[in-house]
Amino acid sequence: MFTKAIVRTPAKSMINGITSVDLGVPNYELALEQHAKYVLALESCGLEVTILPALEGFPDSCFVEDVALMTSECAILTRPGALSRRNEITHILESLEKNYPTVYSIIPPGTLEAGDIMMVGSDFYIGLSDRTNHSGATQMKGFLEKHGMQAHFIRMSEMLHLKTGVAYLENNKLLAFGEFLTKPEFEKFNILKVSKDEAYAANSIWVNDKIIMPAGFPKTIAMVKHAGYEVIEIEASEFEKLDGGLSCLSLRF
Ligand code: CIR
Prior knowledge:
The chain is an alpha/beta fold. It is built from six helices and 15 strands. The chain has a single domain, classed as L-arginine/glycine Amidinotransferase, Chain A (5-stranded Propeller).
């Protein structure tokens, strides 16, 4: 179970955030509204949410998941592969130190964004992506192993981050799309398959037995409900315009 979450208010500069999709420029006011409802959804799952202030110098800084990994034993400050995001880490360090006695850091030549890491109990699946390289993943593995946790590497070729296309819903269930439907490492899970026209919904989050999902993806939402979960739907259109999903918007621990 999680008890806390950290989020960061979107900056006005988010209109200049990195994107690979052609969905238009985010509407900042609407993004703020959606973000506020996201916070309420986390709170309704029992989390105490810390809201960090917007960072105008970092258009993508509301995607706070990428700059740190919080485990039950330790926290790890990442080293984002996206250059424009690299110094976001200096603004999250204090929050990590407040919550953990042990904080590690990924160092050069490693790069790692924690959107590439999926936690399954004490196992961590680390996607090797354009943002996370082998050195970053190997350093992360070392930190996790020091504390009795395990890491598994997943080679990726299609998606931005691992969790862009796969989410662990506990109870041995994975919500997955695209290249993650056929990875041998995921064969042991019961896979709920997300269809191509609803790919964005693969980035949903398990929070204390509820699943927070993006609104507007009826097939995936029905499938998750049918699997026995209570679903909270929230609008995330303005973050989708920047390739950001629901997991990216918080650190949950
Ligand atoms: C980026 O490209 O870094 C942001 N526009 C989106 C980050 C999304 N984060 C995530 O998937 N964990």
